[in-house]
Amino acid sequence: MNVADALDDGWLALAGVGAGYALAVGLVFLLVFVLPYLAVAAL
Question: Where does the sequence pass through the membrane (predicted)?
Answer without folding.
Answer: 12-40
